[in-house]
Amino acid sequence: MSYNIKINYNKEVLIDETFLDAVQFKLFLKSIHGCLALKNTLMFYNGNDFLVNIPYDILAKCIIYTKTKEYTLTDHLVTKSKMESLV
C-alpha cells in the first residue's frame, strides 16, 4: 500500500511525495499538523534526499491532499478485524 501527500500553493505543487511506510507517512502528517497548530515553519530533512522548508505564512494558505493509492479488500478485512478485536 502506498500513501501520497500533495501540498499546493497558488496552483503550484510544493510537495508531491509518496510513502510506502504508513508510520513515516503518519509522522510526516503529524509534523505538518504541528506546524500549522503552532504556527511554525515546516522544516524536514530525511537525512538522504528529501528537504522541505515552507514558511508558516505560505503553509497556512496551502491546499493539502492525502490519499491512499491502493486499498484492497484484504486490507479492509484485516483493519476491520483489528478494530473488532479491540471492542
What share of residues are in beta strands?
A: 25-35%
Helix percent reads 40-55%
The helix-and-strand class reads: alpha+beta
* H and E string: EEHEEHEH
* Structural Rg: 15 Å
Question: Could you please describe the fold and organization of this structure?
Answer:
There is one protein chain. This protein is 40% helix and 33% strand. The protein is of the alpha+beta class and 87 residues long. The strands form two sheets. A three-stranded antiparallel beta sheet has the order 2-1-5. Strands 3-4 form a two-stranded antiparallel ribbon. The mean pLDDT is 85.
State the gist of this model:
The protein has 87 residues and is α+β, with helices and mostly antiparallel strands. Helix content is 40%, strand content 33%. The protein is built from three helices and five strands; from the N terminus they run E-E-H-E-E-H-E-H.
Overview features:
87 residues; two-stranded antiparallel ribbon; 3 helices; 5 strands; elongated
Per-chain topology:
Blueprint: E1 3-9, E2 12-19, H1 22-38, E3 42-45, E4 51-54, H2 56-59, E5 63-68, H3 73-86
Antiparallel strand pairs: 1-2, 1-5, 3-4
